[in-house]
Amino acid sequence: MVSSEHLNIVPPPTNRASRIYCDGIFDLFHFGHAKALEQAKKILPHVYLIVGVCGDEITQMMKGKTVMNEKERYESVRHCRWVDEVVEDAPWIITQEFLDHHKIDYVAHDDIPYKMNNLDDVYKFVKDQKRFIATKRTGGVSTSDLITRIVRDYDEYLRRNLARGVPAKELNISFMKERELFVKDKVRVMKKGLKRTISESEDCIKCNWENTRSEILMLLDKWESKSHEWIMNFTRLFKFNDKEKEDSRANGPKRLKF
Fold first, then answer.
1. Which site in 20, 47, 161, 258 is 20 to 30 Å from 124, CA atoms measured?
2. What does the alpha-carbon distance between residue 219 and residue 205 come to, in Å, rounded to a whole number?
3. What mean pLDDT is predicted for residues 240-244?
4. 3-6 — which CB contacts under 8 Å span 24+ positions?
5. Coil, strand or helix: which one is 11?
6. Where does the record place the Cytidyltransferase-like domain (predicted)?
7. Is the Cβ–Cβ distance between 56 and 66 less than 8 Å?
8. Does domain 4-141 match CATH 3.10.150.10?
9. Is the pLDDT assigned to residue 173 strictly greater than 50?
10. CA-to-CA distance for 199 and 194, rounded, in angstroms?
11. Given phi > 0 = left and psi -120 to 50 = alpha, else beta, which region is 191?
């Protein structure tokens, strides 16, 4: 929480909670939305947070088709822990009459100027009254980002839903597209199985080599420890003792008897 002087806003009421208003479309409600609402809820000591959610008609006219319909978007926002009240079918552009009707003390929104028609910033009149509180966007997540991911991985999600039993007709794809995805999925499973088999074979070869290597090292150790003894025993077979040497010199070489 920060002071009203630091926020450059008129002092908050002292006998009740401050009524702060946020508005938006909130399609595919995500943690970026939730963090913006959390900022508004915690910006002052005592806050009653009112959130306006624009309806389908105005949203589709001004911005285009949404993934979630208005009822789904209303309920998504209503179940956010920071929200005290939801204004359904909220206006695209707020007016002083709207703020007065809902007894709103402050409007919270990111500080990017929103141009509309001949207005450079639809929130300018609120800023002029020092009743505007700027919130910060959460980087790395937005409704547009989420839709981009879905479009990018379109075939992947189609395969997943087909595997779960969703009819092709409900997914709005042709029979040929369904067969194409089926074949691709089979090929992917085969590749995965082949890769696993190769990996297991490599592990088996590696394990066998380690065992063979251990046996070779054991044999080498045994040879090293026994080699001296074996060599000495072998040389004794051809070595004369001292007495045999003297007899050989005195009598000459022994003759063979027949």
1. 47
2. 21
3. 53
4. 4/44
5. coil
6. 21-149
7. yes
8. no
9. yes
10. 8
11. alpha
68-83 in b/e burial notation, b at 16+ Cβ within 10 A? bebeebbebbeebebb
Phi-psi region of 117 (alpha: psi -120 to 50; beta: other; left: phi over 0): left
Task: Return the structure tokens found at 33.
Answer: 């939305």
Amino acid at 236: R
Helices 175-236 and 154-163 pack at an angle, to 10 degrees, of 90
SS3 content of the chain, % helix, strand, coil (to 5): 50, 10, 35
- The ranges assigned to domains in the chain are 4-141
Decide if pLDDT at 191 tops 80: no
Report the pLDDT value the prediction gives residue 257, as an integer from 0 to 100. 46
Q: By the 8 A CB rule, do 2 and 86 touch?
A: no
Phi, psi torsion values for 18, nearest 5 degrees: -75, 130
Q: H or E element: which one contains 180?
A: helix 175-236
